[in-house]
Amino acid sequence: MEQQAAQSRADQVRTFRVELEILDSDDVLTLPEQAKAHVRGYHDALLHAASERFDIDTSQTQKRLSWSMRIASFIGALALSAAVFFFYRFWGLLGTPAQTLILVAAPLLTTLAVEWIARRERQGLYFTSLAALVAFACFVLDLSMLGRIFNITPSENAFLAWAAFGLILAYTYGLKLILVAGLTSLMGYLAATVGTWSGMYRLSFGERPENFVMAGLLLFAGGLVLPSRRPAFAAIYRVYGLLVVFIAMLILSNWGNASYLPLSTTAIENTYQILGLVGSALAVWLGIRRLWPGQANLGITFFVLFLYTKLFDWRWDWMPKYLFFLLLGLIAVGLLLVLKRLRAATREPAT
Amino acid sequence: MKRKGFLLAIAFVLLANVVVLAGVAYNRSGAPTSELQLTAREVYIAHSYYGLGRENSGVSLYLRWHRPEGPGQSVLNEQKLLTIGFHKPRAYVDRRGWRHSMVSRTREAYLVLEYGGTAWQRLLETRRTKLDEELKTVKSETRRQRLQTSFERFAKTASRLVLVDVGNAPGALRARYPDRRRYLIAKARITAYQIYRRNGSGAPQPALRGSVSRLLPGTISVPHTDTAAILALNSQRYSSHHGTPVPTVTLAYGQRYEPWIVGVGKAGGGQPATE
Questions:
Q1: How far apart are CA B231 and CA B218, in angstroms?
Q2: How many CB pairs under 8 A join A and B?
Q3: Residue B50 covered by a domain
Q4: Per the domain annotation, does B5 fall within a domain?
Q5: How confident is the model at residue A165 (pLDDT cuts 50, 70, 90)?
Q6: Buried/exposed B194-217: b ≥16 CB within 10 Å, e otherwise
Q7: ipTM rounded to 2 decimals
Q8: pLDDT, tens digit, for every residue of A314-334?
Q9: What residues of chain B lie within 8 A of the CB of A253, using their CB?
Q10: Does the residue B19 lie in any domain?
Q11: Residues A33-70 pLDDT 10s
Q12: B2 lies in some domain
């Protein structure tokens, strides 16, 4: 049993125990003492084994503490990574060989530390995640500082190297935070590559949001076709990819001048407005159909954003303000009704 | 699985570093593509007075150079921009006004900077002519004095590197400018932008203009061993040398057109060397 499955089973057991107590107190179902003891013994053994093997949360308090640890580990990882970047305060005091040696050794040593910590940490991987982000930061610093020391022309290939290293760490130790770091680098590489197809300077990819539309769609497609051994990873690919696509479309729907398209500004903005509305509606539909709540929430958020920004654009100046907000309120009510119907349509039968 | 992934991560870090360092070794192998002995007039310390850059205790240089001035002297004109791959913008008119449809606004290209040659002399002449014209109209003696001093300071202390050409093929540029000690060929990021001129009927007509956003790389790292000499050179920027040896920085560009500092020394009178 994998850790995630063990945790869900433990949650199930806890819910079952609570429900059984309610049924007992309401006189709906009272198990004989012997059966109760038998079930309790079985569950205790199951929880004990899972807890020994994976160190999972077996109570609500433990679960809450786990969340706190996750947050503390995230903040700690960010702070330690920042500390790594500020190492260049001592840079001027070192010769080139010493600088090179430190840069090459730092990601190697921190990767060793990740492995050492991961072997000792059975659950949550809080310290592993923290150490892995520091290793990732060391590798980013390694390549970028070597580039500075040896005056190397900036290249998008550095993004690819960072992405590969991040993905190796993420898949080896099952770390979602590092997966996001790796995918961010991959996004940079893909956007830069798409930009170079038009002859654009490789690191000016941020000037054209359409570079990110292509990159985001590729990541989203990755979330659909990659092996689903890690469902949480596939969800990150999909949500992250769509997030980037929608942000790029939202920018283009309000700033058509940044587009590659050989059309007038108005035509570009209207095109992306329609594409954004249709795309976010499709994301909601697919999210509900496939039971991907993250994607459905993202879709509805952007649907509202596309709608409201355009309404503001078209109606704010000439419409009385009370009417404008009334219109927004009515649209929100309309959306609620549509979502309620969708929810009802996807409800499973009670039997 | 974990063990394999861990070994893969270690191997990947090593491989990435080997690739980077092999690239550096290749760049510095063989004869440099350009090697110039520059003075404090051309090289400046790249200071970071704000932001995170203040934390960096390393020292870097950047090159100062000039664009040619005067009518018909522009290197990055529309014709040149089209030859390095930019496309002519098309105009679209809508309710928001007009827009252009440039496929790319920035491209990487190679620059040729001439060091202390005819381009520098031409620039000085253009500035002198401009000064003479200004002096004809200015009555205030203080203002006249200030203009004269400003020109003299420019002639004595300004960088003598002047942009003379731009292209996509460094080999072809080197064939056209073969002196490696006078003509520096470096990579740069070129930005094109459109300007609009109204034609006879009042309709906007787009045209291309270009500028060099930055040389690539933008700064040149100073090795620890040369830091003290470079800082001393920087402090002598406005000293008058009058034929006495001046501190110089020998800068080389390699096979990948990436620079490095060969050394810091002194040269007689600070005049540019030629092959």
A1: 19
A2: 165
A3: yes
A4: no
A5: very high
A6: beeeeeeeeebebebebebeebbb
A7: 0.86
A8: 666 777 777 777 877 888 788
A9: none
A10: no
A11: 888 888 888 988 888 887 777 667 767 777 777 777 77
A12: no
